[in-house]
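Quick note —
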Amino acid sequence: MKCGIFWVQKNKIWILKAVDRGTRRTVAWVTGSRDTATFQRLYDKVSHLKTCHFYTDNWDAFSKVLPQERHTIGKSGTVCIERDNSNTAITLVA
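Predicted structure written out below.
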């Protein structure tokens, strides 16, 4: 999982996504602040996937929420989400 950002007026709103590395499909997402509570809401949406392993960068919220035995930190596992983030387009209408 990796974060993308867009701006609404002067407030930053983060989009946090969980992507299946095999199918490259987004399986869950949330919006909010870049904090542990927002990431917890995303994890709550995928925590029922007991065979899921999580690959993330070294953001503190990931280590606080994810089960250590199912969590790997490092860029080698985040290529899929980085590609997905670069393909995400958001249009804001005033």
